[in-house]
Amino acid sequence: MQFLDDVKRRMMAAMKAGDVVRKEILRVAVGEITTNEARGTVKTEDDERAIVRKLMKSNEETLSLTTDEAQKQVLLQEIAILRELLPQSLGVDAIVEALAPVRDALRAEANDGKATGAAMKHLKSVGALVEGKDVSEAVRRVRA
Questions:
Q1: What are the start-end ranges of the H helices in the chain?
Q2: So where are the chain's domains?
């Protein structure tokens, strides 16, 4: 798949450049993708991107728990490197704009959770690439 090939190319370039942090996080990504391909759980490039998102979220969770400044810096670098591999998702302001057609329906929902579910359904129907936490924030703004 093209996505995996791109990750491998980036990893090789990092090796040649001596960029240890980039090389190692890309090596982890390649390993996770190929392991899941062997298990048969990866069939599309979207599945491969989902694995990278999962690695990113794992690093973000670790970042929130660590107190070691050196480790925090490495984790921030790794998150930035992984983010480069993924298509850019809409920001909160762009999500608020994308929700304009369903604004009244979101305000009519009983609570933020139901409104967020309705917002996600609408955003997926129009093919918007979004992060859940950004949708939650956008829904809070729309309902305010």
A1: 2-17, 20-39, 45-65, 69-85, 92-98, 103-108, 112-125, 132-143
A2: 2-85, 92-143
Closest CA to 51 of 25, 20, 74: 25
What is the CATH architecture assignment of 2-85? Orthogonal Bundle (1.10)
**What CA–CA distance (Å, rounded) separates 86 from 73?**
21
CA-to-CA distance for 114 and 122, rounded, in angstroms? 13
Q: What confidence category does residue 136 fall into, taking pLDDT thresholds of 50, 70 and 90?
A: very high
Q: What is the pLDDT of residues 79-128, one digit of tens each?
A: 999 999 998 889 999 999 999 999 999 999 999 999 999 999 999 898 88
How far is 33 from 15, CA to CA, in rounded Å? Answer: 19
Distance CA(133)–CA(119), nearest Å, equals 12
C-alpha of 40 from chain center? 22
What are the pLDDT digits (tens) for 31-76?
999 999 999 998 899 899 999 999 999 999 999 999 999 999 999 9
Cβ atoms within 10 Å of 132's Cβ, excluding its own = 9
